[in-house]
Write a sequence for this structure.
């Protein structure tokens, strides 16, 4: 039985799917030759997060690009094929799956089920370049995993625990379904939507712990066993179908540009990361993986030779012509390219809707030929604006509930902007609609 049907069974649902005519009529379409590419636009996240998982799967089946409705989810789903170098020009969209998890009685869980529901509202990939979702969290965080905390209490997901079960923020451990099967169901549904999937990883030694029976062990890049564990834990997720690793603080690998380093602890040597990325590719047998480095975009040769495919934060999207000129200059760089940002995980607010939409337009259209497009980086907030008193970085560092009545639905309704957020999502959807035929 495929993992999507196993998930339905664990949720005590049957695996027969029914077409959802309401959302089919509501869906946005790509423009012109991309008309069959569909997603839910003009929404706020609560519109889909309040649905059941089965309803979300039925919407995903209804929006099938092929036009074929599958009344049972297919047994074999392949990743959208954009070649081995797809990561060099992809749009990376980070989803904070902890923030859209279920918060109930002070506990946080089932973020992967929230991510499945939000898949319905993520635009599919364009003809020439892929969209890739990056999940903010998969492993346990070391500052209070599975617990809601106050808006000023640290609960950072930049600190992770390896050699331990996957995060309770993410997995629904009340289900009779393994964590791996839940993650695999998400990946298969993303691929069915025409979207690739990846996850965020950290490299600062003091932000990584190793779980053991006698308590956590401090991670060290000088310990070969720890390096081997890092490779094995990454491989496990790649084997589930994830195709991208976003490497936090990658610019500083080998102690490069340390005056701007904000992580905690030692960093791997340059040759260590070369070895790690090579081993992940070799052991998984996958040549089509994308490795993305945060802020790794000043010395192009350095990061290409490290094994990266894309790097963030070289240029912002405010100046369309500047990005277009960079795209032209990089058109012969087919293994690695610097990227353009709409916003990143360190964003603390301050961007107007107009500035964000302008950056999104630049990220999706600033090139002469679509084959020369630079990679782009955006956050959940760039599709679904957050409420006025929080921001991307705040939700990475803390885990507050915004519920006004103690229910999970109220948290979903109040985490994001409301009427103005819906209007913004409509405008962002229109920009994507024109990009999908490129």
């Amino acid at each position: 039985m495929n993992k999507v049907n196993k998930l339905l069974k664990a949720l005590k649902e049957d695996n027969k799917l029914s077409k959802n005519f309401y959302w089919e009529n509501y869906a946005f379409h790509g423009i012109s030759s991309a008309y069959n590419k569909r997603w839910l636009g003009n929404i706020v996240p609560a519109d889909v997060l309040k649905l059941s998982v089965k309803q979300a799967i039925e919407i995903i089946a209804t929006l099938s690009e092929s036009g074929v409705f599958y009344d049972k989810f297919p047994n074999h789903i392949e990743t959208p094929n954009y070649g081995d170098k797809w990561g060099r020009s992809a749009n990376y969209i980070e989803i904070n799956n902890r923030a859209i998890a279920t918060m109930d009685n002070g506990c946080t869980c089932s973020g992967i089920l929230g991510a499945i529901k939000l898949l319905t509202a993520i635009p599919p990939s364009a003809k020439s370049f892929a969209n890739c979702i990056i999940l903010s969290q998969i492993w346990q965080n070391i500052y209070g995993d599975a617990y809601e905390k106050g808006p000023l209490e640290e609960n950072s997901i930049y600190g992770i625990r390896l050699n331990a079960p996957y995060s309770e923020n993410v997995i629904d451990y009340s289900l009779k379904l393994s964590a791996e099967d839940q993650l695999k169901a998400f990946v298969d549904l993303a691929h069915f939507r025409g979207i690739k999937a990846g996850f965020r990883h950290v490299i600062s030694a003091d932000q990584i712990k190793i779980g053991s029976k006698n308590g956590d062990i401090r991670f060290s890049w000088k310990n070969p066993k720890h390096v081997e564990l890092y490779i094995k834990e990454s491989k496990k997720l790649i084997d589930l179908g994830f195709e991208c690793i976003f490497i936090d603080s990658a610019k500083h690998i080998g102690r490069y540009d340390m005056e701007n380093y904000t992580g905690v602890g030692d960093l791997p040597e340059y040759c260590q990361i070369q070895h790690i990325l090579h081993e992940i590719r070799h052991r998984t047998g996958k040549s089509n993986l994308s490795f993305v480095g945060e802020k790794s975009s000043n010395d192009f040769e350095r990061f290409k030779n490290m094994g990266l495919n894309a790097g963030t934060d070289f240029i912002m999207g405010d100046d369309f012509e500047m990005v277009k000129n960079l795209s032209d200059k990089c058109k012969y760089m087919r293994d690695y390219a610097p990227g353009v940002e709409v916003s990143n995980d360190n964003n603390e607010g301050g961007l107007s809707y107009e500035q964000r939409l302008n950056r999104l337009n630049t990220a999706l259209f600033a090139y002469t030929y679509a084959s020369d497009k630079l990679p782009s980086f955006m956050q959940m907030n760039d599709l679904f604006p957050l409420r006025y008193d929080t921001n991307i970085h705040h939700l990475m560092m803390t885990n507050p509930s915004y519920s006004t009545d103690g229910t999970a639905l109220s948290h979903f309704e109040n985490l994001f902007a409301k009427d103005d957020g819906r209007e913004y999502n409509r405008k962002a959807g229109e920009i994507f609609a024109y990009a999908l035929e490129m």
